[in-house]
Amino acid sequence: MDAFELTRLFEAVRLGEISPDQAARKVQTAPIEEAGDFAAVDLHRAVRCGSPEVIFGQGKTTEQIVRILETLVRHERGGLVTRVDPEVGAQLRRAFPTGEYHPLGRTFRIKGDADPGPKLGKVVVVTAGTSDLPVAEEARVSAEAWNVEVGLIADVGVAGIHRLLRRLPDLEGADCLVVVAGMEGALPSAVGGLTDCPVIAVPTSVGYGASFGGIAALLGMLNSCASNVVVVNIDAGFNGGHIAGLIARRAGQARAGAASAKADRPAPGERTEHGA
Q1: Which of 158, 154, 165, 162 is nearest to 184 (CA)?
Q2: 110 and which of 99, 231, 234, 239 could share a cystine (Cβ 3.0–4.6 Å)?
Q3: What are the residues facing 35 on neighbouring strands?
Q4: pTM (2 decimals)?
């Protein structure tokens, strides 16, 4: 049950089509639907959090993922699945022909039936190296699920900082950046020192032995001296993209609201309905 369905429910109570008790029962039962005996699908997350439930595909069978997606699609939610192996991705594409499988980022996405409206907000995903692209792609798709504009800038790590400097114009106007890096994890600090928006740093497990599977990058990012940098878990592209999308969407909505309010205000000296 989303905000639109809630509005229709309240209107039905107002018109006397259903009783308040019946409406209360609908609200109580609508948030959860069982998908077999293995999943309780949260259908209310979009109302609480602004975005539908996301399926973590790793460790789940194809049948389980299909049943959960069917539940979401039946309620016009669409669905996003992360950590999808190629074999599972191929089966999901057969089961849901309209879905989009992204093998690099290991994601599968079905868009909802409802018109998402205009894209509000902008996210740019930046990678230190080409090897960081799988995590960056997961971040990109996750941010796009918020219906924001998303750009990608790849391979601009600090080993050749001039590559980043020449792409600075492409970062302008972003509401949030996702910076993905392995090795020593220095890129988010460099980006944070050159930009005026939040930077979500995503450490990756890319690197040689002393990188300790991404721990070196994680610690480097946590110790960043750039005050606009915050950090998510190792290889957590979804988390970085999701948070960035949330920030950008809210920023875009605020701008749209301010623009609408300004348009509704009469110009200085303009006649109003009740005044000369």
Answers
A1: 158
A2: 99
A3: 39
A4: 0.80
Question: Tokens standing for 12?
Answer: 């039905």
Q: Which two tokens stand for residue 177?
A: 């950046």
Strands (E), 7-68: 32-35, 39-42, 54-56
Q: Which residues contact 64 (CB under 8 A, 6 or more apart)?
A: 35, 36, 38, 39
Largest CA distance in the chain: 77
Distance (Å, rounded) from C-alpha 276 to C-alpha 266? 12
For 47, half-sphere exposure in the C-beta direction (CA atoms, 13 angstrom radius) is 14
Strand partners, 40: 34
Record the tokens describing residue 109, joined without a space.
Answer: 């996405």
Which neighbouring-strand residues pair with 123? 150, 176
Residue 107, phi then psi, degrees to nearest 5: -125, 155
CA distance 125 to 245: 11
Amino acid of residue 132? D
Return the SS3 of 198: coil
Confidence tier at 74 by pLDDT (50, 70, 90): confident
b/e burial code for range 22-61 (CB count within 10 A of at least 16 → b): ebeeeeeebeebebeeebebbbbbbbeeebbbbbebeebe
Identity of the residue numbered 154: A
How many other CB atoms are found less than 10 A from the CB of residue 87? 9
Q: Are 217 and 211 a contacting pair, CB within 8 Å?
A: yes
- Tens of pLDDT along 96-140? 998 899 999 999 998 876 666 788 899 999 999 999 999 999 999
